[in-house]
Specification:
- The complex is a heterodimer of chains A (117) and B (112).
- Chain A is mostly beta strands.
- Chain A is built from no helices and eleven strands.
- In chain A, the strands form two sheets. In chain A, strands 2, 4, 5, 6, 9, 10 and 11 form a seven-stranded mixed beta sheet that branches. Chain A has a four-stranded antiparallel beta sheet with strand order 1-3-8-7, with no helix packed on it.
- The chains are: A mainly beta (117), B mainly beta (112).
- The interface between A and B is medium-sized, with 33 and 29 residues.
């Protein structure tokens, strides 16, 4: 596997289900991100992890629970979701360098298309 | 991976023509501006970036122009090819932040 992989690619769940999205990066990066891409809004940041520590939470509802056990893996645990949570969930990773260094390109996975019934 | 459902502005060009995709931004406290390309079924892919203290940067067949006076960013694609058909997003990285803030995107359609 190369780059950033995400599983599953498609997920359909009911509002009472609990599911998890998985992301794995094979690039040796130290930062990972969850973004949401919905039908009605631009790509929006959800969470940022740097060296396994959460550094940003963009006011995401608690029904989304991220987990970063190591620098290569990122999970998004889902429970009691709403139909409006249906979207493409994208994971990304980057290699963070010193402040002021060149832009740290974020590499995206293909996403998980989530449908909440 | 496409922004299905969003009413994206669409730019339709003939193969071989040059394309210009525009983006307006509001946040002045940005270190970098970046262009991403998203093809159907895929995640966004980095094209080119420009630091906020620059006006122009060129890559392979692409040029990004930054006008901070009017807060405008553009992506120029030379000799557009069918493989360039995708949704293009501008994004910026705010000062001191790692995460990106994305625009709503422009769909580029290249007619053979």
């Amino acid at each position: 596997e190369t780059g950033v992989t995400q599983t599953p690619r498609h997920l359909v769940m009911g509002m009472t289900n609990k599911k998890s999205l998985k992301c794995e990066q094979h690039l040796g990066h130290n930062a990972m991100y969850w973004y949401k891409q919905s039908a009605k809004k631009p790509l929006e940041l959800m969470f940022v992890y740097n060296f396994k520590e959460q550094t940003e939470n963009n006011s995401v509802p608690s029904r989304f629970s991220p987990e970063c056990p190591n620098s290569s893996h990122l999970f998004l645990h889902l429970h009691t979701l709403q139909p409006e949570d249906s979207a493409l969930y994208l994971c990304a990773s980057s290699q963070e360098r010193a402040r002021g260094a060149a832009y740290n390109e974020q590499f995206f996975g293909p996403g998980t298309r989530l449908t909440v019934l | 991976g496409e922004s299905v459902g969003l009413h994206l502005p669409t730019l339709s060009v003939q193969e071989g023509d040059n394309s210009i995709i525009n983006c307006a931004y509001s946040n002045s406290a940005s270190d970098y501006f970046i262009w991403y390309k998203q093809e159907s079924g895929k995640g966004p892919q980095f094209i080119i970036d420009i630091r906020s203290n620059m006006d122009k940067r060129q890559g392979q067949r692409v040029t990004v122009l930054l006008n901070k006076t009017v807060k405008h960013l553009s992506l120029q694609i030379a000799a557009t090819q069918p493989g360039d058909s995708a949704v293009y997003f501008c994004a910026y990285q705010g000062t001191g932040r790692r995460a990106l803030t994305f625009g709503s995107g422009t769909r580029l359609q290249v007619q053979p």
